[in-house]
Amino acid sequence: MVPTTPFRPSRHAALARYRLRARRAAEMSDPPGTVPHMGQKALFDREAMADLLARQHGVITRGQARDCALSDQALRCRIRAGGAWQVLLPGVYLTNTGASTTLQQLVAALMYAGPGSAITGPAALALHGIRAPRTRVVDVLIPHERRRRSLAFVRVQRTSRMPGLLLWVGEIGYVPPARAVADAVRSLRNVGEVRAVVADGVQRGRVHVSQLADELARGPVQDSARFRRVLEEVADGIRSPAEGDLRTLIGRERLPDPMYNPRLYAGDCFIAKPDAWWPDAGVAVEIESRQWHLSPTDWERTLARDARMSAHGIIVLHFPPTRLHAEPGLVGAEIRSALEAGRRRGRLDIRALPCR
User: Taking the domains of the chain in order of start, what are their residue ranges?
Assistant: First the structure.
C-alpha cells in the first residue's frame, strides 16, 4: 500500500484566499472619517452602553444604541421574539424581558416624547409626594409645535406653556408641583378626587394656594370648573375632601357659613383648630375618620383637644365622613340645634384667626 500524505494547498491558492478575505473585510469597513462599521463586535462600546443603561434604568433608544456602535442586525436580534430586549415604545427599548417599572416607563415616555418634554399629571404628583388617583398612564408635556401622538401608556399633552424650570430625578424631568396639580385635576371627573389632590398638596406644604390660583388663571378654561370650585373651597380654609363635603352639606341645608380650620385662642392661649367654627354660637364641628384614630396617640390627642374646647364652653359636634353622605338631613338638623343653643347662651370670649 502506497503511503499517503496530507493535502497541502499550493502557495498561490493560500494567497488567493487571503486576498479574498482582505477584500471582504475592506467591503465591510467604513471609509475614513466615518463611524466604524456597526457589525464589528470589537468596536461595540459595551462600557458606554452599560453607563447609559445604569443612568436610564435599563431603557435605551435606537439612536443611543447606534451611538454605542450596536449594529442594526444586532439590535433586531435583541428585540425579536424570545430576544433579550423588548420594545416599550417605537424606537425605545427595555434591555430585559420582565415587566417595566414605573421609573422605566417615565424614562421611556420622555425618550418617546423627545427633547424638552416633561412629566406632568399624576406621575409628577407621585414624584412630589402628593397623593393622586391611581393611573397606568404617564402624562408628558411637549412643545405645541411638536407632533407626537399618545401611544400605549403615554398620554401626550401639547402646550404653549412649557415650564421654564423643571425638577429632576436622575434622567427624569418633571414639572413643578402647582403645574402637576393643575394638569392632573383637569382630567378628573369627580370633584371628590379633585379635592383630595388639591388638599393633599396644600396640607403637605408642597404647593401654596396662590400658586394654584396662578395656574388656574394661566391655564386652559376647558375642564377647569371643578378645579375652580375646589380652589375656592381651599381659599376658604378647606383642607380635606371630608371638609369639602361638609361645606357642600352646609350649603344644601341652608346653614350659616362657618370659618374653616381657624385657630382658636382664649387670650394668648391656643385652644384648638376645629374643622368648622361658628363664632357667634361657640359651636365647633370635627369630621373624624377611623384612619385618623388608628393609633392610641391619635385618639389621646383628640380627647385632649376636645377637653380644651369643652373647658372653654365650646359646643363640639363630631361626625364621621360617612354620615355626611348617608344622613345629610340629620347632620344638618344637629348642627342647627347646636347653633340655636349656643346663641341662646351668648357669645364666648374666644378669638378666632383665619386658616393660613
Answer: 37-100, 102-235, 240-353
Q: What is the pLDDT of residues 58-102, one digit of tens each?
A: 999 999 999 999 999 999 999 999 999 999 999 999 999 999 999
Give CA separation, 341 vs 277, 309, 319, 338, in Å.
15, 16, 18, 5
The β-bridge relationship of strands 315-319 and 283-287 is parallel
Q: Provide the Cα torsion 343, 349, 355, 356; round to 10°.
A: 160
Q: How far apart are CA 103 and CA 242, in angstroms?
A: 32
| Sheet strands side by side (includes 59-61) | 59-61, 92-94, 86-89
Residue 271 near residue 352 (C-beta atoms within 8 A)? no
- Integer-rounded Cα Rg, in Å, for the chain is 33
3-state secondary structure of 196: helix
Provide the grid cell at 214: 396662578
Task: Indicate the pairing of strand 351-353 with strand 315-319.
Answer: unpaired
Give the number of other Cβ atoms within 10 Å of residue 93's Cβ: 23
Q: Output the pLDDT for position 106.
A: 98
Give the tens place of pLDDT for each residue, 97-154.
Answer: 999 999 999 999 999 999 999 999 999 999 999 998 889 999 999 999 999 999 999 9
Average pLDDT over residues 290-302: 66
pLDDT digits (tens, 9 = 90+) for 199-216: 899 989 999 999 999 999
Q: Please say whether the beta carbons of 197 and 131 come within 8 A.
A: yes
Which pTM was predicted? 0.73
Rounded Cα–Cα distance for residues 140 and 101 (Å): 17
In 10 A of CB 88, how many CB atoms? 22
DSSP at 99:
P
CATH 3.30.56.10: does it fit domain 240-353? no
The SS3 call for residue 6 is: coil
Closest to 165 (Cα-Cα) out of 118, 127, 126, 128: 118
Q: Which three cell numbers stand for residue 181?
A: 396639580
In the chain, the percentage of residues whose pLDDT exceeds 70 is: 85
